[in-house]
Amino acid sequence: MIRVLLLVVFLFVSAVQAQGRVYVLLWFDTEDYIEPSSDDAALRLATDLRQLGVKSTFKVVGEKARMLEKRGRKDVIEALRWHEIGYHTNFHSVPPAPAVYLRTMDYLTGADEFMRREQAGLKDVSRIFGVKPSCYGQPGSSWAPQTNSALRRMGIPMYLDEGSHVGAGHQPFWFGGLFYVFDMGPYVMRASLDQDDFEASCKKFDQAAADLSAKGGGVISIYYHPCEFATTEFWDGVNFSHGADPAPAEWKRPHVRTKEDSERCHQILNRYVKHALANPAVRFVTASQLMALYQPQLPGSKVDRRMVADQMAGRQTFLVVNKTSLSAAEMLLLLLEMEPRLVEGPVSEGKTTYDGDSIDRRRFDKAKTDAIAFINGYGRLPAAVWLGSETLSLEDFAATLAADTGNGPVVVRKGKAEFRDSVSKDPEKTFGWVIHPKGFRAPELLELARLQAWTLKPAVLK
Ligand SMILES: [Zn+2]
Fold first, then answer.
1. Distance 92 CA to ligand 1 centre (A)
2. Cα 59 to ligand 1 centre (Å)
3. pLDDT tens string 395-441
4. pTM above 0.90, yes or no
5. How far is the centre of ligand 1, averaged over its atoms, from the C-alpha of 33 (Å)?
6. Closest Cα partner for 346 from 178, 172, 182, 176?
């Protein structure tokens, strides 16, 4: 009898595994420091979800954490702590927003500036909640690539938000050394609190879950803001629209929901979560739990060099094979016979000035040695490599290196940097947000992101 039972359990478990688990990441941008009833909404959400046995991720704004402390809301702090804490900037919508000031800066200066502005907020959230935030996400659509570099230095390994600036197949990916849950496309969803779409939302969830399960597993991203359950308009929209910067004494309180209306909103989320829980393939996870379910960022050493060379000689972009994924940067390191390590992309666009069809081997070897020294020295890729006083752009160098037979003169090959296609070409829509100044666009940030996309690759479930 026990044997039969074990067999049944085994078959069930195998069936679910073959189908693939669906991991649901439920997260809350906890940011409204103006309207106090948003504090109660956060408490209620954290308490309800705990009763359902569901751990979620609360990305907290520095000023919100300080306000909770000031208002003596130990109850809210404790309730959120049972879940997981992320970081959501120090002041959120008080100008300048991250994309607004980072647009004017290069990669390295911007990373330093983001750290200068954000370290105090991160410190406060860490102190008030007694934990190091596991992830970061930008306010609104105020995304910028320089934050990757800064966040790694600030000890935050994961980027959790939604946007369309950069992505990889609407599932988690690695970018700039961080684990990204972003641009989730059809896999980002929610049941609306104000439109009557509950049944349709459940159907949409089931469809996405079935779809991911059939593909062997994947992630659904669901997000809300605690303030949505307390107010009918956003706390920042009524104060900081289009770059406005009123004095704190002038801050207006957003319109508050009635008690009954707020209760109705909480019931919608509770029913939606219960609906998801009823699906046997679904597991709710926090940001850090999700990251641990994925293969570590650095590839192992058992990568077939031939396959990498074939890919890189033709086109430079990530490669996913046998449960391993490799970024163009990682493949370049492999071709240079370097150990796998974290690197950043180039900080500027390199050009090819060398106009010969082939390169003397001694000169090419010297260029290789120099490239290795640059990468080891700075922890990032060079924009170009030197051949005497002439240059090869990094993609031309990568293609040439990959195609090199090792005999005779080195034949020059043109690169094809396809990894750039992972970054949006729309500098306006991607940065659309009511808090940004009117007509705000940031092509410079997308350009920097395209350079950093050397490091981009899909994340692979273990
Ligand atoms: Zn936000």
1. 7
2. 8
3. 999 999 999 999 999 999 999 999 999 999 999 999 999 999 999 99
4. yes
5. 12
6. 176
